[in-house]
Design a protein that fits this description.
CATH class of chain A: Mainly Alpha
Structural class of chain A: mainly alpha
Strand content of chain A: under 5%
Largest sheet of chain A: none
Helix content of chain A: over 70%
CATH topology of chain A: Tetracycline Repressor, domain 2
Radius of gyration of chain A: 19 Å
Number of helices of chain A: 9
Number of strands of chain A: 0
Oligomer: homodimer
Distance between the termini of chain A: 44 Å
Order of helices and strands of chain A: HHHHHHHHH
Number of domains of chain A: 1
Chain lengths: 195, 195
DNA sequence: CCCAGATGTCCGGGCTCTTGACATCTGGGC
DNA sequence: GCCCAGATGTCAAGAGCCCGGACATCTGGG
């Protein structure tokens, strides 16, 4: 289960994703070269295909890994407050701040609609959305005991979509948006609170 | 040349040696179990044999790696002084101090003659001796420009054997031995000095 | 129009880890 | 003294994965 072979496999995937990440940050999806990813990792081009299927698979895997890392931070912000609304506000602000600085996000959204990678946050955003929803939902259901699970899910869904929208199409500053979300969802949560 | 496969191979060897090192430190050569080395690394027993040949090969490789690390420190001590004699004194003291604290040395020499690993420093000390000689000699010929190469080699050989003897069979304190070596070899070097 | 470069696919070859089996030796218990 | 458990060392078959080369296809630029 934790054999050397398994660890090697994980390491290979991870290093390939490191190479892909750098390439995408440097030149976007179009600038990504399958041969480069392999060469930088010291592996043949075929191995890249074996691991990810095709070029789109490389992008997806890269974004998934980045999203996972992203969510760890956001969840930490959520957990730093006992009151759900405070946690929500902190998480929203954290997410927006981090997104604004994230090299991968910047590369994908460099010029509006120019890079195909941006589709992973828009027309093909299903995966990122579901992944984020799952991680946040699990976290919230555990840390918001006084909020009915279904209502917590609703909150996460709304906040998540608002945040994603602001990442793709920035509006007000992070703190302002965070406050806005908190003010909008606060009454809902208060009304639904079981205790 | 630096392919992922190559790195993986080096990593495997290194992790196997880590496991062997710990096992030897914990139970000496007799307490070393080929199956354990494999299991701790997450690899089959056969793989251990493929890498090292036999149990004695595992011990040898472990000692060689440790010796290499050891010599890096000793060479640094040598290089820290411009005067050959000062360097020699520092190196001898450094070597003796480190040897006294070294877990592998302590495991090998735990009870006099009890563990077969001790043979690598005594009756079968050829390898360690040659390896050390080679590393130190190369270093000395480069950093002692005013000493004829052959005389530098002689110095290294004498000092090395004295040090090894003191490691196996401790006499005076490191600083004392270092001073002794310096006093004995000083006149020789002065007489032979070309400048 | 053509070609260079990139994607995606296929396959044979080779290396290495795995698994299971087996022979041999040794030390301890009965 | 005998036997067995445990350890070393060897062998072969099997599987997985990376490599290297070849090939078809598509696209953008000269």
């Amino acid at each position: 289960m934790d054999s050397f072979t398994d660890r090697t496999k994980r390491r290979l995937r991870d290093e390939l994703l490191d190479a892909a990440y750098e390439a995408i940050v440097a030149g976007g999806y179009d600038g990504l070269r399958m041969a480069d990813v392999g060469r930088r990792t010291g592996v043949s081009r075929q191995t890249v295909y074996n691991e990810f299927g095709d070029k789109w698979g490389v992008l997806q895997a890269t974004v998934v890994r980045e999203t996972e890392r992203f969510l760890v931070e956001v969840n930490d912000a959520l957990a730093a407050h006992t009151d759900p609304i405070d946690g929500l506000r902190a998480a929203v602000e954290c997410a927006l701040r981090m997104a604004a600085d994230n090299p991968l996000v910047k590369a994908a959204l460099g010029q509006p609609g120019s890079d195909q990678a941006s589709q992973l946050l828009t027309t093909r955003g299903q995966q990122v959305l579901e992944l984020s929803h799952q991680r946040l939902d699990a976290h919230v259901r555990e840390h918001w005991p006084e909020v009915p699970a279904e209502d917590a899910t609703t909150c996460v869904d709304v906040a998540l979509r608002v945040v994603l929208s602001h990442i793709v199409n920035p509006g007000a500053a992070p703190a302002v948006v965070a406050d806005q979300v908190a003010r909008v969802l606060g009454p809902f949560l208060s009304a639904r609170r079981s205790t």
